[in-house]
Structures are given as structure tokens and as C-alpha cells.
Design brief:
The protein is an alpha/beta fold. Helix content is 51%, strand content 13%. The mean pLDDT is 95.
């Protein structure tokens, strides 16, 4: 197949390479020319603008977006809606909020343009291992683009999960679960770090992946991280969040679903950004007031 791909960050560029390896033709565009030049050397077709990209696609145009969620994606879809024709397809592979995906699909459908929300997981390892794709779309549109999904995903690594919005909804929940998993692993390693034992966390990570009930790819990555930097020296205790955790918690509240683990893992990320934790000061002061517990002075 021949498609256009807009957004050539690490993930987008690797997806282009995997598609090229699968014998697809890919027209690429990014605001930065460096990744375009790099991918052209690997067989991609360069485009210097969105209009240039569209001019190099066949009659039924398929454009895959791998750009930041939110306003950048919304604006890109609006621009495409004014330049595409009836029957063309827009695929959003970013982490858009699923309700925005539903709205974008409706707006495009009014012009006869199809929309696919493709929740994409795999990160920088996707080129080698493949991408897990959670796809929301009309079933016939999904089938039209299925050769692309087969190339990008590992065996059994893609699924049509429902109509528009469903793909990004499932990806949102996927990332919410990820928050909880990362927090649980982090807390476990911190308890061991605080113990009196001198432990090799890289070896323990490897051990836990040998038949343990908590084995996972995340532990493989932990083994790599601790192998390179056993004490995680130079890494600030600051954890960002990209939005999906917040959306998952908000969805749980809206649906009256209890999700304490995911919620607390999100709040722990927010806490990591505090230069000093005032709430901890409040607790320390109150413990001193009611129990006479000692207060540690600031250095």
C-alpha cells in the first residue's frame, strides 16, 4: 500500500521504517527536515508540505498522523478535512482523548472522509518488536487498512475494538493500567533500596522474569535500566504524565467505578514534582501536636 505519514518523531520514524520493510510505500512529512532526509535514504518519499504529501498519494488517500495529542492533532485533522476527498482515510495514531476522536470522526464524516483512531503502544521498541494497535473504526475502513496494521504489529498484535473512539478509549485504559504497574514496581524497589541488604536490582529484575507471577516486559526494562545505572544516579525524582492517566481517573469517576490504584499512581506522579511537600509538613506538625512526636528541622 501507499500511505502518507505526518509526524516523524522517534515513534513515527520507526513506524515508517517498519512499513518500508513490509514493502509499503510511504510519503513522509514533518516540520523538521532532518528526519525526512534520514528516511528518504531508507526508501521513503519526501514531502515538503501537507499539500505536497497529498499530491504524491493515490486516488484513495490514507494519511497517518503521529503528532502530539490535543490541539496539534485537532488542527492537523481540520487542515486535512479541507484538502481530502470523499472516501479518503485519516488515521490518528497518537494518544488523543477518545471523546476528541469521536468528534473528529463526526466532522470528517460530514465530508465523506473516514477516520480511524489507532491507539498505538510499543514506544521506541516498536520497530524491532512491533506495535500493539487498538483500532476504532468502521469495520470496512478497518479492513481497507488492515495490511498496514499487519505490517506494523506483531502476531495477534492488532484488533478492531469497536467504532470510532473505541481505539483511543482502550489505549487510555491501557496507559492508566501502566501507571499502576509502574508505581507498584517502583514502590517494591524502593522498599528493597531502604532495607539493610545490599541487592543487585538488575539481577533481581531478571530473576523475577523467570517464571514469577509478576514477570513482564517492564521488568526487562528495569533490568536494562539498573544494569546501566545501578543507583539511578543523576535521574531526578520527577515523573511526568502525558494525560491518559488523568483521563482514565476522570472516566472512572464519571462511570462510578472505583479505581484507587490508578488514581493514587497519578497522584504520586503529581507529588514527584513538588520541591517540598507541604502536606508532609502538615502531618509532621499535627503528629507533634497530638503525640509530641519529634519534628525534623529543615537543612
Amino acid at each position: 500500500m501507499k500511505i502518507g505519514l505526518i509526524g516523524l518523531g522517534k515513534m513515527g520514524s520507526n513506524m515508517v521504517l517498519r512499513l518500508l520493510k513490509g514493502k509499503h510505500k510511504v510519503v513522509v512529512y514533518d516540520r523538521s527536515t532532518a528526519p525526512i532526509k534520514s528516511l528518504v535514504k531508507k526508501g521513503a518519499i519526501a514531502a515538503m508540505s501537507v499539500s505536497d504529501l497529498l499530491s504524491k498519494l493515490p486516488e484513495q488517500k490514507i494519511v497517518w498522523l503521529m503528532i502530539p495529542a490535543g490541539e496539534p492533532t485537532i488542527q492537523a485533522v481540520k487542515e486535512l478535512s479541507n484538502k481530502l476527498s470523499i472516501g479518503d482515510i485519516v488515521i490518528d495514531g497518537g494518544n488523543s482523548y477518545y471523546k476528541n476522536s469521536v468528534l473528529m470522526a463526526k466532522e470528517l464524516s460530514q465530508k465523506g472522509i473516514h477516520f480511524i483512531d489507532a491507539g498505538t503502544s510499543g514506544g521506541i521498541w516498536g520497530l524491532e518488536k512491533g506495535y500493539c494497535l487498538m483500532i476504532g473504526a468502521e469495520i470496512q475502513v478497518f479492513k481497507t487498512c488492515e495490511p498496514l496494521f499487519k505490517t506494523l504489529a506483531p502476531k495477534d498484535g492488532y484488533l478492531h475494538v469497536g467504532p470510532n473512539g473505541a481505539g483511543h478509549f482502550v489505549k487510555m485504559i491501557h496507559n492508566g493500567i501502566e501507571y499502576g504497574m509502574l508505581q507498584a514496581y517502583a514502590e517494591g524497589f524502593e522498599i528493597m533500596h531502604a532495607s539493610d541488604y545490599k541487592m543487585d536490582f538488575a539481577k533481581i529484575s531478571h530473576l523475577w522474569n523467570q517464571g514469577s507471577v509478576i514477570r513482564s516486559w517492564i521488568l526487562e526494562l528495569a533490568q536494562d535500566a539498573f544494569g546501566k545505572n545501578p543507583k539511578l544516579s543523576g535521574i531526578a525524582a520527577y515523573v511526568d504524565d502525558s494525560g491518559e492517566g488523568r483521563w482514565t481517573v476522570a472516566e472512572a469517576i464519571e462511570r462510578n467505578v472505583s479505581a484507587p490504584v490508578i488514581s493514587l499512581s497519578l497522584f504520586e506522579r503529581l507529588r514527584s514534582r513538588e520541591k517540598e511537600c507541604f502536606s508532609a509538613k502538615v502531618i509532621a506538625a499535627l503528629r507533634n501536636e497530638f503525640g509530641g512526636h519529634a519534628i525534623k528541622k529543615e537543612v
